[in-house]
Amino acid sequence: MARWWRGSVGYEVYVRSFADTDGDGIGDLPGVRQRLGHLAELGVDVVWLTPFMPSPQADHGYDVADYLDVDPVYGSLADLDALLADAHQLGMKVICDLVPNHTSNQHRWFLDARRSRQARHRNWYVWRDPAPGGGPPNNWVSHFGGPAWTFDEHTGQYYMHLFLPEQPDLNWAEPEVRAAFAQILETWFCRGVDGVRIDVAHSLVEDSGFRDNPVLDPPPDDDRHGSISTFEHFQHAHDLDQDGVLEIYRDWHRIAARHDAVLLGEVYLLDPARLARYLEGDALHQSFCFAALRASWDARDIRATLRPYVEASGDALAWPLSSHDDPHAATRFGGGDRGARRQLAYLTLLCGLPGSPFLYQGDELGLDDAELPDTVAEDPIARRNPGTHGRDPQRTPMPWQPGPGVGFTTGTPWLPVGTNRTDERTVAAQTGVPGSHLERTRRLLLSRRRLPALTDGSPIRWLPSPDPVVAIERGGQVVVALNVGDEPARLPVGHPVAIAYATDDDVRVDAQTLVLPADAAAIVQRLPAPASSG
Ligand code: GLC
Fold it and tell me: Does the pLDDT value for residue 519 go beyond 50?
């Protein structure tokens, strides 16, 4: 069967902040549906919708209270059906977020589980007695800070939660949990959903002995969420990436195969060999490569970061440019016009790699993270760490047009749009404007679609290049090159080429040398050798 997801272009829609049609300040499914045309014209193949299921919203939908319905705040099942039908009409696939590691503490399974030790769903969650001297059963901590255990007075045991106490972990050693999720997948796929993005796909299974995690000494300076991450201070030998998880995905693979659906994992592992295991032997079809969010603006670092993943997993990888959990790429690369320029150049490189580039909403505008008033703290990470904004700055409303609600809402947006937003960085201001970030992004995605070597899994070669340049060749036909330096750089390509795409009007080919201005990238195509005369 043709694997339609290979080489596709993905786009993450953070539903809550994409488009609001009923004026409550919160994005909804009808809003996504209305804006599908924007995505199709941009050149998107696969739309990922963040969780829209009923939820108390303790973690903005990543705390699911019913896996098979739509939260009224986001619309209805009928709205989802209409969205799916329109997307398919436009030639796009839609994948939904599946959160199998944990439920909401308001899910009926958990409400039952905490009633008594004999409850029908007790073993669907992870319960342990207190440690012999009292206190939590082991040293595991939550991703959001604090212990991974909360004591339940009523039944005298602790339950485990790798995220918030409102997100109790499911017990995947329980066969009924497996059966329940098989049913959930069947239901969504039968409804016409084209696949799932699996939340924290490297989690789910824990060490059966619940051994303590080794403490890292000294602690790493690498801290994903700012101040809180005691999580980063442990080696997660026993709570993450356990062998048993792959078995679950092999079961799901069989279900997905019956529906030609894709399993795309959020496998947040920064080790190419460990990540590759999820993509082998009929487990997941695709995984995000989160290392792509960590490379600095340095040619050696970009090469050293990406190459091992490409070698280990090739076109089964999805390359996020930004996400609802991480800063916008423009901000990561310095912010403002320069950050936006670099972001587009980096996206061009990602478009040259085997696999699927994945944009996050607003990336097509060159959007920066929003600057927010000090009082704003919607993200649980921000709430738990006064004085920080957590992930709120990347989750603000999508700016469709100038004006108070930025075309996102007629009401008051649930998160402010950001004091640094400008009229120029809106869809309305950039559409049809030659040289705008949006038009350049659209050209990039459409140019890539026309070059089979970039989408058909053709072999990749990392070309030797002068230091500030990263250059790759695909299928002996196409070269993609990025200059991260402050000065123009020259890359000899060894044969005649034509420019298929450039981030900058000043990119040129000089004899058989590609000339790239600072912070620019280009895709060039090999020209047939001239017929020899005589
Ligand atoms: C994933 C989601 C993130 C969420 C967490 C817990 O990392 O992307 O937004 O907070 O899982 O579900």
Answer: yes
Residue with tokens 């490297």: 202
Q: 255 exposed, middle or buried (CB, 10 Å; 0-12, 13-18, 19+)?
A: middle
Residues 6 or more apart whose CB falls under 8 angstroms from that of 74 comprise: 15, 16, 26, 27, 28, 29, 52
Enclosing H/E stretch for 313 = helix 299-313
The whole-number pLDDT of residue 532 equals: 65
CATH topology of domain 10-104+174-445: TIM Barrel (3.20.20)
- Distance from residue 299's CA to the centre of ligand 1 (Å): 30
3-state secondary structure 403-460: CCCCCCCCCCCCCCCCCCCCCCCCHHHHCCCCCCHHHHHHHHHHHHHCCHHHHCCCCE
Residue 226 pLDDT exceeds 70: no
164 CB under 6 A from ligand 1? no
Q: Which long-range contacts (CB under 8 A, 24 or more apart) does 378-385 make?
A: 378/60, 378/414, 378/415, 379/60, 380/58, 380/59, 380/144, 380/164, 381/144, 381/145, 381/225, 381/226, 381/228, 384/144, 384/145, 384/146, 384/228, 385/145, 385/225, 385/226, 385/227, 385/228
- Beta 317-320 vs 286-288: how paired, if at all? parallel
Closest C-alpha to 48, from 73, 69, 18: 18
Determine the average pLDDT of the residues in 372-391. Answer: 93
Task: Please give the average per-residue pLDDT across 496-521, as a whole number.
Answer: 97
pTM of the model: 0.97
Q: Which CATH number describes the domain made up of 459-526?
A: 2.60.40.1180
Q: Is 199 a pocket residue for ligand 1 (Cβ < 6 Å)?
A: yes
Write out pLDDT tens, residues 464-489.
998 899 999 999 999 999 999 999 99
Contact of 265 with 287, CB cutoff 8 Å: yes
Give 324-375 pLDDT, tens digit per residue.
Answer: 999 999 999 999 999 999 999 999 999 999 999 999 999 999 999 999 999 9
Q: What ranges do the domains of the chain cover?
A: 10-104+174-445, 459-526
Q: Give dist(CA 528, CA 406) in Å, integer.
A: 48
490 contacts 506 by C-beta, under 8 angstroms: no
As a whole-number percent, the residues of the chain with pLDDT over 70 amount to: 98
Ligand 1 contacts CB of residue 166 (under 6 A)? no
Which residues are catalytically annotated?
A: 199, 266
CA of 499 to the centre of ligand 1 (A): 40
pLDDT band at 232 (very low <50, low <70, confident <90, very high): confident
Residue 109's CB: how many other CB atoms inside 10 A? 22
* Fold: same for 10-104+174-445 and 459-526: no
The minimum-distance atom of ligand 1 relative to the CA of 325 is 9
- Confidence band, pLDDT 50/70/90 cuts, at residue 229: low
